[in-house]
Amino acid sequence: MDPTTRHSAQRWTSERITTVQRWAPHQWSLRITRPADFRFQPGHYAKLGLALPDGQEVWRPYSIVSAPTEDELEFLLTLVPGGALTPALDALGVGDEVRFEHLAMGFFIETQLAAGDRLWMLATGSGLGPYVSMLRDGAALARHGQIVLVHSVRYANELAYADEFRALADRLAGRLHYVPVVTREPQAGGLSRRIPAMIEDGALEAHVGMPMDAQGSRVMVCGNPDFTTEMRRILNGRSFVPCRRGLSGSMLFEKYW
Q: In whole angstroms, what is the distance from residue 106 CA to residue 95 CA?
């Protein structure tokens, strides 16, 4: 069955772009109108699609950045040169339409984890997306005393939503710790090494002032495959337990690729 037939057999609607927020030349956020019947949980993803000029219909999944209570849906996108969909999405502006499939998918849901003293949210690049939804929703704060959000990018202009996180951290009076990491340009007093390396030598925990231990910590990992593979090895070595169907764990992974 070709992609056009597969998706036309499911429920989708054309939705209008309401906002485009450009973070970097290759990175932007897109807000679209929300179908009245669409429901999701923070951490879910959904598919966007376009009918291309050659007649082909292309669909790709993207994590939902908005909170479940918001009237619109937001997505954090990264341009893939030569990709099937993102170059076409990059050319769109406010008022243009995209296709949206009415199906929330995925298992990167914070409630799969057992409640703990602290929740570490680790992300590379656009793997940040699910955490934005979770923090806007706020339910994770009720289950964990402290939340540490660590976002690693190559260049500082890729730190999407940084101002929002800093403002939220100020309002939460020490319960949210936002840790930006920029690996390819210097930051005054900032971290600049890869997350796995800083965990292995203790630098990240020293910077935050809290341990990443299996007894009191829960860890979510979202990013490129190399990053998630390294983090799985490190956390396994620290006795973290993966989430299973019907069984809460202490670590949860999403490969954002």
A: 29
Is the predicted pLDDT of residue 108 greater than 90, yes or no? yes
- The beta-strand segments (E) located in 25-112 are 27-33, 45-51, 57-63, 72-78, 97-101
Cα–Cα distance, 11 to 19 (Å, whole number): 24
The model's confidence at residue 10, banded by pLDDT at 50, 70 and 90, is: low
Per the structure block, which two tokens stand in for 102? 């009415």
User: What is the rounded average pLDDT of the residues 17-44?
Assistant: 97
Cα–chain-centroid distance for residue 240?
21
**What is residue 255's predicted lDDT score, i.e. its pLDDT?**
79
Q: SS3 for 16?
A: strand
Three-class SS state of 209: coil
Select from 54, 129, 120 the least CA-distant residue to 88: 54
Amino acid at 15: E
pLDDT category of residue 1 using cuts at 50, 70 and 90: very low
pLDDT at 67 over 70: yes
Closest CA to 76 of 130, 153, 150: 130
Give the integer Cα–Cα distance in Å for 79 and 148.
Answer: 27
- Residues 65, 31 contacting (CB under 8 angstroms): no
